Amino acid sequence: xxxxxxxxxxxxxxxxxxxxxxxxxxxxxxxxxxxxxxxxxxxxxxxxxxxxxxxxxxxxxxxxxxxxxxxxxxxxxxxxxxxxxxxxxxxxxxxxxxxxxxxxxxxxxxxxxxxxxxxxxxxxxxxxxxxxxxxxxxxxxxxxxxxxxxxxxxxxxxxxxxxxxxxxxxxxxxxxxxxxxxxxxxxxxxxxxxxxxxxxxxxxxxxxxxxxxxxxxxxxxxxxxxxxxxxxxxxxxxxxxxxxxxxxxxxxxxxxxxxxxxxxxxxxxxxxxxxx
Length: 276
Prior knowledge:
Blueprint: E1 2-7, H1 16-25, E2 30-33, H2 63-72, E3 78-81, H3 91-104, E4 109-113, H4 119-124, H5 132-148, E5 152-155, E6 160-164, E7 178-181, H6 185-194, E8 197-200, H7 205-218, E9 225-227, H8 234-243, E10 247-251, H9 257-275
């Protein structure tokens, strides 16, 4: 199992360039970053983890700009959206942005997507929360068509466009890896439908086991298992490895430069000890 770093990149903490270089220099395999376009002031949707919404949610940089900057100063690490809120993004523009990152990085982009939890946020983008799952499915399919076909077309209930040319195409063939975030029966169905992998949050091992059993019972493809927000806990890492996870992305708290670098050093040492 390989180890990467997952984090919220903000505008008042370690800068993207320093962060990406530091992750690669310390031997980590990936950088996975979270996204929120904005946080509505109403705060009607409860924070899924309970309590007040952490301040880091309010200041996230755009994920595609961030990963493009990381791509420009690294040569090895995988660049992951963890997750991109595709229900809030135009699929044609997103297809171009993601393919562009894959080209700039030489084929190191991985597209993590999800349906989101902040209902007010998605409503501001014109998305009806009741139909966000169906919208997400269509946008995934439309982007895959734009990545792989020329001219590409898509005709669905929520996404509809006539034959069109879109360049660049991704470096990775047939297209960049797709990861679906979430923890529900709908998440399992979406992984199966799109032949995707699963990007799980740090759920209890029993819950991970249940979901993975569901996925493997129905999947006809090799399902990649990855994470966002994994704690620095070797016992938990053992459990992930036993479940067949290929990658664990350790949660790096959103901190200033010097503290972030110190934590990355500690994480690298912990991984070295774990591997023996």
